Amino acid sequence: MTEPTVIEHTRTNTGPTLPQAPVRDILERAFAEDAPAGDITSQVLIPAQARATAVLNARVPGVFSGATVFRDAMQLVDPATEVDLLVQDGQAFDAGTHLARVSGTARSVLLAERVALNLVQRMSAIATRTAEFVRLAEGTQAQITDTRKTTPGLRILERFAVRCGGGANHRYSLSDAVLAKDNHLAVMTGGDPAKLTGLLLAAKAQLGHTTHFEVEVDRMDQIEPVLAAGVDTIMLDNFSLDELRAGVAQVAGRARVEASGNVNLGTVAAIAATGVDVISIGALTHTVAALDLGLDVELTVG
C-alpha cells in the first residue's frame, strides 16, 4: 500500500495560497461534466470572433475566496483570456464591489462562467461564514476549525476558504492523525470503560512520535482515563457550557481541549469563553449557501 499524499496549504505575505495541480484537476473534471462536447448554445448564437469583457460583481457583502480558482477556470478554457483580480483571497468586500474583470473571446468567457462562479460562490460563502465565527470568538484563546464534513472532491478548496475567513484546518484526511471517536471507543472497549486507558496506551505505542493523537469523549467520567493515556488533544463532544468549563479545569493543560457539537453563531461566543483551545464546526462547510456573486458582461465587440 502506498503512502497517502497529504496536500499542504501554504501562506504567503498576501495570505493563503492553493497548490496548482489539484485545483487544475478539479477544474478539468468540472468542465468535462459541464461541457463535455463544448457549449452548443454559444456556438450557434455567438460569432467565433466576438469578444466580451465581464465583471465579477458582489451583490452582497462578504469575504472573498477563490480568486485564483476563478482566474484558472477562465484561462483553462482559453489561456489568452485576460483576468484582472481586483480583490484578493481573504479580503472583505461590500455589496457592489467589483471582484475581478475578465476579457476574452465571448464564447470562452461564457463557457467558463458557470464553473468559475459555482466554485467562487461556494468558497466565498465558506470564507464569509468562517469570518463570522472567528469574530464571535475574538478575545478568547479558542481557534475556529473546520471538519471533514466537506463536499467530496472539493475538500482542498473548501478548507482553503476556511483559512481565507480566518479559521484553521483540522486533520485533512483519515490518513493524517488519529482521532478516536465514540464508535471507535465502543468497538475497542466492548462497553467496558475500565479497558479504555490500556487500549489507548497500546494504540499510542504503535504511532510515530510526530503523529497527533486525539480522543473524543461524551461524558465527564471518560476524561481522566483518556488523559491517563497521554493523548495530545481531548475532544469534549456535545458538552454543556458548565461541563466544558469543568472539563477545561480538569484537563488543566495536560492536553489541548477541543469543543465540538451544538456550535452555531448563537452559541460559539459562550463556548469560546469556557477556555477551550479549539472549536470544530462542521457548519463552516456543510450547510453554507452560495454567496450571491454574478458575472455581468460589461462590453461586447463584434
TrEMBL record:
Compositional bias segments (type: Basic and acidic residues): 1-11
GO molecular function: nicotinate-nucleotide diphosphorylase (carboxylating) activity
Residues that coordinate or bind substrate: R114, T147, R148, K149, R171, K181, E216, D237, S260, G261, N262, I281, G282, A283
Coiled-coil zones: none
Reactions catalysed: nicotinate beta-D-ribonucleotide + CO2 + diphosphate = quinolinate + 5-phospho-alpha-D-ribose 1-diphosphate + 2 H(+)
SUPFAM superfamilies per the UniProt record, alphabetical: Nicotinate/Quinolinate PRTase C-terminal domain-like (SSF51690), Nicotinate/Quinolinate PRTase N-terminal domain-like (SSF54675)
Protein's UniProt keywords contain Ribonucleoprotein: no
Residue ranges of every copy of the Quinolinate phosphoribosyl transferase C-terminal domain listed in the record: 126-296
Top-level taxonomic group: Bacteria
UniProt enzyme class: transferase
All copies of domain Quinolinate phosphoribosyl transferase N-terminal, residue ranges: 39-124
Region described as Disordered: 1-20
A Gene Ontology term for the protein's cellular component: cytoplasm
GO biological process: one example: quinolinate catabolic process
Keyword check for Glycosyltransferase: yes
EC numbers, comma separated: 2.4.2.19
UniProt xrefs under Gene3D superfamilies: Aldolase class I, Quinolinate phosphoribosyl transferase, N-terminal domain
Biological pathway: Cofactor biosynthesis; NAD(+) biosynthesis; nicotinate D-ribonucleotide from quinolinate: step 1/1
UniProt keywords, alphabetically: Glycosyltransferase, Pyridine nucleotide biosynthesis, Transferase
UniProt cross-references to Pfam families, sorted A to Z: QRPTase_C, QRPTase_N
Family as reported in the entry's similarity comment: Belongs to the NadC/ModD family.
Function, as annotated: Involved in the catabolism of quinolinic acid (QA).
Assembly description: Hexamer formed by 3 homodimers.
Full protein name: Nicotinate-nucleotide pyrophosphorylase [carboxylating]
Species this protein is from: Pseudarthrobacter equi
